[in-house]
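Exercise: predict the fold of this chain.
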Amino acid sequence: MMKVNEIFYSLQGEGYHSGTPAVFVRFSGCNLRCPFCDTQHEEGIEMSEAEIVEAVKTYPASLVVVTGGEPAMQLTEGLVDALHAAGKYVSVETNGTLPLPKNVDWITLSPKDSWVGSQAAPVLSHADELKLLFDGTHEPSQYSHIAVAHRFLQPCDMGNNARNAEIMQAAVDYIKKNPAWRLSLQIHKILKIR
């Protein structure tokens, strides 16, 4: 059994797959406590792998985004295999502090050690995309040793319009100087959708 916070259908709002219809499977629980986290990830219900797959199959999208909390605490190769058997493409959003099943299709690594300390340093050496929450004070080049195909800076919403504008400008300036990076905006917040 796995503790699931929620399963819902929306558009992926961030990173490489931004704008793509996706079924989100949000697992409960996280091994970190980030100061900016907007997810209440402790609540949830116990579900079997089969129940999760049946819930996912009620939606037409092929993309499944497994997130949390921290999904690596619960995600199994068996669940990924079952989602594949249902015709789904499995993307995982992780802080990278724990190993993932080898059979996931897409890894979005979003390290948090700049925010909560070295105990949160990623153990993953590769991912499909690196998505850094950026506030203008943390140096993205510290992750240059991680092999990734796509690098995104995502301005961190600090809940303050003036500070957010400064962070956005800093992100744009950084990307213009470092063109291997791309800007990721949280379009679901802009559009006011889930």
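Check your answer against the key: The mean pLDDT is 94.
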